[in-house]
Amino acid sequence: MYSEWASLSAQITANSCGAQCFSVLNKFPASAGREVVVSVVKQLGTNLGITQNAEPSHLVKDEEVKWCMDVICFGLSLPLQEHETIKDCVNVYCEWLTALHPQPRISVPKPICEDANLYARQIINHFHNLFVPRQGESADTIKRQAVLCHRVLRTLQQTAQISQQMDRQTWDTLLLFLLAINEILLAPPTVKDDVGDQLCERVLSVLFEVWLLACVRSFPSPSMWKTLQESCSMWRHRVALVDQWNRVNLALTSRLLEFSYGPAFPQLKNADEDGQLIPLGMSNDCVAQTWYRFLRMIGNPTALCSPHIISKSSHFVQWALTHEKGAETHQHPCLQMLPQIFLNAMKGISSQVDAFLALPLTSMGAGVELAVARPKCNSILHVFHEWLFEAAHIGGDTWRQNRKKQACEASKRPSSMIMEHRKGSISLSQPNSLNDPASLPPTLTIDKYESGRAEAIGTLCKIFCAKKTGEEILPVYLARFYMALQQCLKITESKECDETLASILLHSGDLFRLDLDGINVLLPGFIAALEIVLPDKDLKLKTQSMAFNRTELRRSAINILLSIMVLPLHYQSLPIRDLSSETNEKMFTFIQLKSRLMNILMNALQVETDAQNTHMLLGGLLLCVQDAVTFEETDLGGGGSGSGATHLHNSGGAQHQHQHHEANLLSSGCSERSASLVSTGTASLGAQTTATMGAGSGSIRDTASAHDYPSLTISDDMSFEFGQELEGVTTYDNAHALFVRATYLVCHRLISSWKTDLNVSLAALELLSGLARLHIRETDALECKRAVKWICDYICYQCSRPPPAHSKDLHSTIVAAFQCTAAWLMQHPYLLQDKDCLQTVLEVVELGISGTKSQSKSGDIPKFKDEKELKPASMRVRDAAENLLTIILEQVGYFPSECGPESISSLLDELALMKHCNSMVPAAAASTEQAIAKFKYFVTENSTILALLEEPLGNDQDPQPTVTLLIRGPFGRHAWTMQLRHLPRSKSGIKYHAVNPGRPIPMNDISQRPECEQKNFPDGVDKVQPCVADYSIPTIEQIREQYGSASIRELELILENQSIHEKLAWAEADNSVDSLSHSQECVPPLVCQEFHAARLFLSHFGFLTFETRNPHNPAESLGTPPQRPLIVLDTKSTAFAADLDRLDKLSARTHDTVYVFYVKTGQTSAQQIIGNMVEEPSLTYDPHFAGMLQTLGWPVLVADHSGWTGFAHNSWSLKGTPEEQHQQQQQLQLKSNVPSELNYNGSQRVLYWADVSSEIAFVVPTTWNLRYNSDISDGASIANSDQIGSSNVWARCESDTGTGPAKSKPRNLSLELETATGTGAGTGRTQKEPVPPTRRKGNVTKPTLLAQAPAKIFLVWLESYEDYLNFPLEDLLAYTRTGEELHSLQQPRAADCHVIFVHSLLSGLLRVKLQGPPGRMSFATPLVDGMVLSRRVVGNLVRQTALNISRRRRLDNDNYQPPHVRRRLKVQDIVQKYKMDLSEAELLAHLFQRAI
Questions:
Q1: Which of 8-22, 1186-1200, 1294-1308, 1320-1334 has the highest mean pLDDT?
Q2: Strand, coil or helix: what is 61?
Q3: 3-state secondary structure 714-770
């Protein structure tokens, strides 16, 4: 840079020598000169005002001043024993220098004030004598000299700062003086505690700070800059030089960034004193010029790795010549600091790169957000590439070859010392005789520079990881970077992780997810590095000067692993070329690396102890298994390698069928063996090969296949050549093998190591739930059974922990384990056919509900339910166990039902049933109230509403006693029809009542009936001896005597009248048509068409079995309504139908909504993003976006959808007639202008997915959503408060079973086990039945204030990855309302939203970025921040992650209630409002009343 300019080094030398011979006293003996100095300086010092008041100087002429200056100049060179005299000299000169100040001191001579610059230049030159090191001085005198030097430096720096009259010549003199004293103090080899060592840092800081001042006041000439550069090259063995250089460079860089990238660019945080280095008046152009010149000031830092170059100065040569035993210049002890100096220089460069990338100076590893406005990688590399690339090769093979080459060339040159000028940097090379590594001391061998090399390659990794989407990096930089990385990734024989390897892994987390051209050539090297770091439990780091956090190192390595996991199945048989060899002997294919990646993942998971790292590995494990399963389902046509349906043929026609090798699927050796099989057994790439892949018999089980829902997978084309690679690999690394290994490993570690950590336990259970949902052809029932057994054991262990360990976190893991068990049983219903598995699961359910098992050991006598006390671990655990029990009894093997996955409840209600009744006119438009009037409503167990309809439905052709039930319970609404039959349906066609047979023919031979006298008593009655009892009935005569004859006459009159009436009646009957005398045919009675079947049903099912009670004894009374076996509801209230509808609108499953957005490059406003969904020809979309949408869920029409739609007002409702739906759909289509494949805004269609316990809707918002939400805000169509947002939804409220006053504030999530005395039950009942646990007491509305609003989950497709930094989350919340927000007191905030960003790479893979609220449970698996996905699994994994995020949020909410609890509380609310307090008799009488 300064090659055309002359150096001023000679002038510096001349000034140094001249200062020592300026004084005339040098002509006299030293003693005489000393006496003159002492007497003169002492007199001058008395006028300075130090010991007495200052007086004006008596020196009034130039000659007088010059004579005194000669004396002082000589005094400054006196031996240090004359400390006081030297001190006076310094004081005099420091006072006289104030002549350059705006206000000079009074003691300054008049000639100096008149020509301050001239005298100041002379004084500055005279000061040189003070800084000259004295030989043989003691440490104490050296310290005194250092104190005086500090005084001078402070004075000169202060003068330069405040002087307004220094001319350019004075500035040059000052700078040259500072260069000279630095030269004399710093150029010699370092000697500990000499004056140069003590003043080193101070003289350098003053030099640089004054130089910066000069850049503002009088910019130094190119010659001056060249002199500074040459001088600094002689001081590079001093540690302070590089430290001060770094300090100034960072200060200048901070100012450079301010005006180069604007105030929005993150400010560089420097120390306070460093921030004041740059003078205030420095212009932007001056800052840029100064920054670049200072950056190049010490030359190429890699020269620090060559002691021969650093020790080439004359001072080192003089030391070598005077050494007692003879030595080379590069063997001086001070050069042992060169590795540390080199490291400091690389750290300084790295700090500047961090500043340009807006990285914190303390950042380690990945995960740090870069500034959007950062410069391009090319720009940074233009400045630093030469130094960084050379430093990265230090000690590598390429470096050694170059050194040998240079040594050979140097040995042929005639001169022994050659100076090279290359691009402004000075580097010195020596002949081979002086450059022999064997002559270096052990502390200076090239491996000692490993730390600096590691810093350099880490800095390069940071630069390349800062590549933006679509940014181009020069191929030459990529090539050099890949070569450097390949050299640094070479593994030593000791298989140790050195500093270079650690630095690469720490700063390369993003390398494989940035679309870098050709980056995959480094894949084998990185995999080899990961094999050293991740599987080692006690990783040994071979470090020298750098400190690494092992956890952070492993985390960064896991980030790299997560970005390359899907590459083998994505690129399949594509070869990976080796950079170092020209031949293709070492070439790998991607699929060959799959087994090694699987082993790294499994082994890392086995030894990992950090919770966050384990969380990331678990996400990666599910990604691998899911990717393998989906690959075998789609790309291989369902024919896995284990099915024996894969046949491979080579060009000669010989058939090779792979033989199955029996091996332990859990061992790492299997995968290694499979890799060797692939490498040795596959044909060469040039051979003509064909492969025939046959689909195996049988179909993949799909829960939604029976309901015409499409498969949510994407199929990629598979090359035929891939079959060859697959043959050797898939036996050990196919989906089934991975499934078995993953299940075994995770279950084992969950039981042994992870059970005490909340996040890891949740992640492991989420992974097991994900594994349960995989459809693997060779699924082993034994493996699934073992997995369920281990999860149950985990629940048992957690429940059995001592009371102090029972916390909210512990109960959250138990609840999650119950949910995981439900997932396994739903996907593998055959497990319940196994007796042992069924018993294990039901025992765990019993443990969750009651707190203990009936049979703790196999030999124990079972304890019955009535004998146990209900003490569950918590109400949350009990609720989860109840839910699992219901799923086992109702859903396993039966989900989805005929209604489809969108509903687990019956789609029939009272109105729908009444439309099918015979009593209803089809054309009549019945209301809900009219339909409800036809039903009788009862409540049993205070949690289930029974609606009974006694009319048969219209499709019944055979009248029977029929009752239709609508059962509304905690787990949904169910419809049943029951008939009382005397014959099975198979025989019901036989008529069991005969046709009229006609009248029989009368018989004429009527026999004569003999007349005989009727006797009232037997013949022998007169012979029986009467007893007293015979006289107990009085005779008529006795009555006459007792009561008189009048009564007897009345009785006789009655008898006579009765006889007359009977005769008249007989006569009338004989004359009538119906009399027996008239001949008539017998007609059978009509078949009964109406039955009172309700009481028959209630009786048969035991609801009318009342225990014998004494109504007068309060202890045996019927009890309060919640304890009665049957409660009657009063349906006459007009609000009953509305309350019933609100109950039906409470879903028995959890519901979530994910909002999908598409962000084009550079879009930062909500209007732009929402506008992407408008149908315009100019708008183009990533083709993979629509494909991803189709894999998220099933497209459903809102008009006929009975599940969650994403909006509260139209979810879980029975839709209208098909004609009405068609009209609504046509009207909405006229209003919509959204592309059909993207039109899922909720107006017509949404994407929907559901399983037995959860529903999720995917909505793509448009401008319609904002209008709809504003309508809802105005109160147009609002869901009722009890539907979603009431206190029952988000807060646990008090149970209706207790009426006593609330207790003092209970322990969080504790159970209050109340006695039965407060509930109205008697003491006898208390002994028989267990006491049910109650929920927390308290005000119903109070917990709502503490409740969390529903989690908002966004799925954002980014065309440019950097746009996630400016995503307008707050503005988009207005488009994402569901109707629930109106009733929760806490509105969703942007800080609480979870965002899943997906960015499509050029390779066809997808990069994931997660953003969410900080917290212990904020991020769920399987997606992990930074993960790279295949398109075939993105929909499945996004959906699982969204569901798991919501589940974790519910687990973390103290006041959350499961859906079935909310429904139960709503039923109890209905009971309290509409119950009829009937006695037993009134209840039975009510049953005989007909419904309307």
A1: 1186-1200
A2: coil
A3: CCCCCCCCHHHHHHHHHHHHCHHHHHHHHHHHHHHHHHHCCCCCHHHHHHHHHHHHH
For residue 1323, give the 3-state DSSP assignment. helix
Give the residue from 1440, 1353, 1249, 1448 showing the smallest Cα distance to 623.
1440
What are the CA-CA distances from residue 142 to residues 124, 145, 184, 194, 733 (Å)?
A: 21, 5, 15, 7, 74
463-479 confidence digits (pLDDT tens): 999 999 888 999 999 99
Strand, coil or helix: 787: helix
What are the Cα distances from residue 1474, in Å, to 821, 927, 939, 993, 1280? Answer: 38, 20, 10, 45, 19
Instruction: Give the model's confidence band at 429: pLDDT under 50 very low, under 70 low, under 90 confident, else very high.
Output: very low
Say how far apart CA 290 and CA 292 lie, in whole Å.
6
Cα–Cα distance between 1210 and 1378 in angstroms, integer? 10
Residue 1223's pLDDT is 55
Cα(451)–Cα(544) distance, rounded to whole angstroms? Answer: 7
Q: CA 957, CA 949: separation in Å to the nearest integer?
A: 17
Average pLDDT, the chain: 77
Which two three-digit tokens encode residue 1162? 């550079």
pTM: 0.81
Cβ(121)–Cβ(167) below 8 Å: no
Give me the DSSP letters along 1197-1266: EGGG--S--SSGGGSS-----HHHHHHHHHHHHHH--S-GGG--SSSSEEEEEE-SSEEEEEE---HHHH
The answer to whether residue 568 scores a pLDDT higher than 80 is yes
Q: Which two tokens stand for residue 1330?
A: 């267990």
Distance in Å from the first CA to the final CA of the chain: 105
Of 716, 731, 721, nearest in space to 691 by CA: 721
**Tokens 């001093």 appear where?**
238
What angle is formed at CA 1449 by the lines to CA 1444 and CA 1451, rounded to 5 degrees? Answer: 95
R_g of the chain computed on alpha carbons: 49
DSSP character string of 1393-1446 = -EEEEEEE-TTS-EEEEEE---STT---SS--TT-EE-TTTHHHHHHHHHHHHH
CA–CA separation, 1423 vs 616, rounded Å?
A: 8
Grouping H, G, I as helix, E, B as strand and the rest as coil, residue 585 is coil
* pLDDT band (50, 70, 90) for residue 434: very low
Beta strands 1150-1159 and 588-589, pairing class: unpaired
Nearest to 963 by CA among 975, 952, 954: 952
**ω into 984 cis (within 30 of 0):** no
Q: How confident is the model at residue 993 (pLDDT cuts 50, 70, 90)?
A: low
List all residues 6 or more positions away from 170 whose beta carbon is below 8 Å from its beta carbon. 100, 117, 120, 121, 124
Distance from C-alpha of 1375 to C-alpha of 1390, rounded to nearest angstrom: 13
Residue 560's nearest CA partner among 367, 361, 378 is 367
* 908 has a pLDDT exceeding 80: yes
Question: Which of 94, 101, 99 has its CA nearest to residue 45?
Answer: 94
Alpha-carbon gap, residue 194 to 188, rounded angstroms: 11
Nearest to 237 by CA among 179, 293, 206, 197: 197
- Whether 506 and 543 have beta carbons less than 8 Å apart is answered as no
Q: How confident is the model at residue 1134 (pLDDT cuts 50, 70, 90)?
A: confident
User: By 3-state DSSP, what share of the chain in percent is helix, strand and coil, each rounded to 5?
Assistant: 50, 10, 40
At 1268, the pLDDT band (50, 70, 90 cuts) reads low
User: Residue 1422: is the preceding peptide bond cis (ω within 30°)?
Assistant: yes
Contact 1212, 1384 (CB under 8 A): no
Q: Tokens at residue 1229, please?
A: 């289509």
Per the CB < 8 A criterion, the answer to whether 1244 and 1229 are in contact is: yes
